[in-house]
Amino acid sequence: MTAPSRKEKDFHIRFRGVRGTIPCPGGEYARYGGNTSCIEVRCGEHLFVLDAGTGLRPLGVELDAAGPSDIDILLTHTHIDHIAGMPFFIPMFKAGNSLRIHAGHLWDNEERLREVFLRLIDAPIFPVPLEALAAEIAFEEFRAGDTLQLRKDVSIRTAPLNHPNGATGYRIDYDGRSICYITDTEHVMGVVDTNILELIQDTDIFIYDATYTEEEYPQFAGWGHSTWEEGAKLAERANVGLYVIFHHAPEHTDNHMDLIADQARMVFESSLVAREGLILRP
After folding, report:
1. Contact criterion met (CB below 8 Å) for 225 and 213
2. Are 52 and 76 in contact (CB under 8 A)?
3. What is the C-alpha separation between 50 and 102, in angstroms, rounded?
4. DSSP string of 55-78?
């Protein structure tokens, strides 16, 4: 039996949207990107998508051009900036595609994931009826903290995050490597979030909600977001390989993000600021 080729075992991520709260058009946001949260994850032949913000739309265009798709979309939560791309995701409208949409924050909620999606596309908010979605679509819920075995060779651990209405963090392990996606979570000053710490321990790539700086944070306390400084502390303590600053605030222009990138490298050398289109391999 021949060993799997490098391509068959390829593990990489591509940032499709890195912004939080609301999309920001070009101009002062052109270099880092203005689409909201969406990350494409390739584990060999398997395709996972972390969040479905406006960055999902261009991904859908590329997938449609490549032929039928089999996709697992893992949502951190269902606030609008993380699901706004779903009604514009072309594979949902094409027969032959298979999509499973997963979420772990609604387990104890009266409203189910499918109902949230239907409300998103319901008139008069969106003019396209449910019947137009020709793909095979399933909505699958779990409890944040569960381990998901969606593919036999991919392990996905989850953890609850501190965010209004709840959110879920993800760790994807494949072929001895891992990435962690922790966004839309708020730290508690002086307290280490053990849910996050345990999830990200020794991970190769750690993506973290760094919406604010420590200087900005006090005026936004309670909004459910964190700082790049707090992320750097977690990265150091958990021995992560690469720390990626993510979920950029709409107020943070390209020049502002350049300053954050420089400051972060002085605190945790192996760090960078996520940019739209950036590809990373664990």
Report:
1. no
2. no
3. 10
4. THHHHHHHHHHH---EEEEEES--
The three-state (H, E, C) secondary structure of 242-264, written as one string: EEEEECECCCCCHHHHHHHHHHH
Calpha distance 219→212 (Å, rounded): 10
Omega of the bond leading into 250 within 30 degrees of 0 (cis): no
Pairing of strands 205-209, 177-182: parallel
32-65 pLDDT, tens digit per residue, is 999 999 999 999 999 999 999 999 999 999 999 9
- Count of CB atoms situated within 10 Å of the CB of 162: 17
Helix (H, G, I), strand (E, B) or coil at 181: strand
Structure letter (DSSP) for residue 134: -
Architecture of domain 11-268: 4-Layer Sandwich (3.60)
**Max Cα-Cα span within the chain:** 60
Q: Has residue 220 got a pLDDT over 80? A: yes
